[in-house]
Amino acid sequence: MAAVDKRAFVAALAQEHGKRLRRFLAARLRKTTADIPDLAQEVFLRLLRVPSHESIRSPQAYLFTVAFHVLHQHKLKLAATPESVELMEVAEDLPTLVEDGPASRAENQQRLEHIDRVLRELSPKAYAAFVLHRRHDLSLDEIAVRLHVSRAMVKKYLAKAMTHCQARLQSTE
Q1: What's the CA gap between 11 and 67, in Å, rounded?
Q2: Do 90 and 112 form a contact (C-beta atoms < 8 A)?
Q3: What are phi and psi of 19, to 5 degrees?
Q4: Which of 80, 103, 134 is the last residue before a domain boundary?
Q5: Which helix (DSSP H) or strand (DSSP E) does residue 1 occupy?
């Protein structure tokens, strides 16, 4: 009987506050509105997992608190998952290498693979900052917004990435 009550409780919240919840999520996501239905569903699923919904004093406040936490986790996940960069995209940014034949092509491929390995050694946020700055030509402020960190932190990530890459690439030359 408690499961039916819990589902009715969540259904009533969805009916009464569903539109407000989606507007709340949309206002905080801005560019990624495609995620709104999934995030709203996650909020209601978490409410279904609450052991005793009867103890919730203010269901509306609880709903939006859960929504805030779902949004926070979603943003952390986005920030920690840097855009994937294909090896050939990095190659486009490098100066053109002279290819005299198969040996030269193989050597160039090895260099590119080494650069890729060096970049993958960075922390996820340092890697993301480096790629967003170098590949996508974003400003420090734009990167800070995307990664949900301060401008100063972006500068630290970029300095760390550059220092790391220079040290690792020079040590192999």
Answers
A1: 16
A2: yes
A3: -65, -40
A4: 80
A5: none
pTM for the full predicted model: 0.48
Secondary structure string (H, E, C) spanning 112-172: HHHHHHHHHCCCHHHHHHHHHHHCCCCCHHHHHHHHCCCHHHHHHHHHHHHHHHHHHHHHC
Task: Pull the structure tokens for residue 147.
Answer: 């990664």
Encoded tokens for 85: 């960069």
* 62, 80, 98 - which closes a domain: 80
Instruction: Quote the CA–CA distance of 108 and 94 in Å, as a whole number.
Output: 11
CB contact at 8 A, 108 and 143: no
Q: What is the per-residue pLDDT across 46-86, written as a single tens digit (0 to 9) for each?
A: 999 988 888 889 999 999 999 999 988 888 777 665 555 45
- Main-chain dihedrals φ then ψ at residue 76, nearest 5 degrees: -65, -40
**In this structure, what CATH number is given to the domain that contains residue 62?**
1.10.1740
Q: How far apart are CA 140 and CA 152, in angstroms?
A: 9
Looking at residue 135, its amino acid is: R
Same domain (yes/no): 42, 92: no
